[in-house]
Amino acid sequence: MNRPTDPHLLTQAATPAGTTAGYMPGWGNDFETEALPGALPQGMNSPQKCNYGLYGEQLSGTAFTATRPERTWCYRIRPSVKHSHRYEKIDLPYWKSAPCIDPDVISLGQYRWDPVAHSGAGLTWLTGMRTMTTAGDVNTQVGMASHIYLVTESMVDDYFFSADSELLVVPQEGRLRFATELGIIDVEPKEIAILPRGLVYRVEVLEGPCRGFVCENYGQKFELPGRGPIGANCMANPRDFKSPVAAFEDRETPSTVTVKWCGQFHTTKIGHSPLDVVAWHGNYAPVKYDLRNYCPVGAILFDHPDPSIFTVLTAPSGVPGTANIDFVLFRERWMVMEDTFRPPWYHKNIMSELMGNIYGQYDAKPQGFVPGGMSLHNMMLPHGPDKEAFEKASNANLGPDKLDQTMSFMFETRFPQHLTEFAAKEAPLQDDYIDCWTSLEKKFDGTPGKK
Ligand SMILES: O=C(O)Cc1cc(O)ccc1O
Ligand SMILES: [Fe+2]
């Protein structure tokens, strides 16, 4: 057994030999981990009595009858159902769910925001979540929401789970710890974490203030994209995803559990920490991934491929090839294409593109799209390089060129994204964003030849 540097000193299982401390490698593996020897039943899930007097409890992330069920068996000090209070509704006015269509807000447009500033107020994972866009419908489990989080304070004796969604967390500033029922995940910028639907956790600030982006996925879980002709290597490799080893605490202290359920928030009281899972096995677990492990594949002779080539994870929608959400990463890479306009081309897209900058400069927008900032190019609305990027790329002497110091991402969904009132009226929206294309001039003069 080893112990993390956690202020609450959760008792943590030993790390499998040869792997990163506190984590087990592999995407969607059927893991098993125990923080006390013999806590995990062998050869069966539901013994008449569990070792150590633990309760067996199953967390199902898919229907029982799914072709490949995703579920985890937990062996815990108390079953989750032991809460002493009915659920009480609470208000978290900045955390919105779809459908959230404000008649006074126009979502049709090209939008860009500067980073939302920290306010000086003490904010937790729950009070610091600021919804920017929503798409689809949380009640029918389709679509998504995008959020910015501004977190300065740890949750103390307060826990949370979302019955509505899995959360894809993309930090941009500061370091966070997700102390979950299934173990501890620490994340910092250039890493991501995924918190499955239904999993209970508290969020602690390891180094603040913390800001980042969240994609709340109401639909089918994120999975690794099919690789098609690319084959088995490059892009995101399964072994680079890490799930935590079991960690538990046996703390009897008045606590609350907040639940997000059909877009509403409720709390209930419990007399102990719910992070009391001593051992677990299964394939439904939180996971982290270092984006620096993403191996981009691209054009090596001419032309600019579709950005789907940079998909890290995809959440299917039921229509093959048309994602509920694609999570796409634009990171450092070499540009080598000959006689090619190398930045993204001008385009309109049936999918809705929400982008965020993690660090550095994005090639299509050398100015104005800054780390911590976001942009939205909604369904079928034209966009592309700004005037500066266009002129530079059209006139550059093309040789091998490293796109360095750059990491942006896209949450791309098949559903139109609606701005929240916060995004339209409170967040630092750049009113002049569309002017970045106004000075693109007519070059056509009726004569042949490249201009
Ligand atoms: O609009 C954007 O900047 C994202 C994007 C990048 C790219 O290389 C191709 C298409 C696309 O939508
Ligand atoms: Fe685009």
UniProtKB/TrEMBL annotation:
InterPro entries reported in the protein's UniProt record: HgmA_C, HgmA_N, Homogentis_dOase, RmlC-like_jellyroll, RmlC_Cupin_sf
One MF annotation (Gene Ontology) recorded for this entry: homogentisate 1,2-dioxygenase activity
Domain of life from the UniProt record: Bacteria
A single Gene Ontology CC term: cytoplasm
UniProt-annotated binding residues for homogentisate: Y362, H383
Swiss-Prot/TrEMBL cofactor(s): Fe cation
Keyword Iron set for record: yes
Domain Homogentisate 1,2-dioxygenase N-terminal, first and last residues per copy: 23-291
SUPFAM superfamilies registered for this protein in UniProt: RmlC-like cupins (SSF51182)
Annotated GO biological process: L-phenylalanine catabolic process; L-tyrosine catabolic process
Residue stretches making up the Homogentisate 1,2-dioxygenase C-terminal domain: 293-444
EC number: 1.13.11.5
Record has Oxidoreductase as a keyword: yes
Enzyme class: oxidoreductase
Positions that bind Fe cation: H347, E353, H383
Active-site residues (renumbered): H304 (proton acceptor)
Annotated segments matching region Disordered: 1-24
Low complexity composition-biased segments: 11-22
Record's keyword terms, sorted: Dioxygenase, Iron, Metal-binding, Oxidoreductase, Phenylalanine catabolism, Tyrosine catabolism
Homology family: Belongs to the homogentisate dioxygenase family.
Name assigned to this protein: Homogentisate 1,2-dioxygenase
Provenance organism: Ruegeria pomeroyi
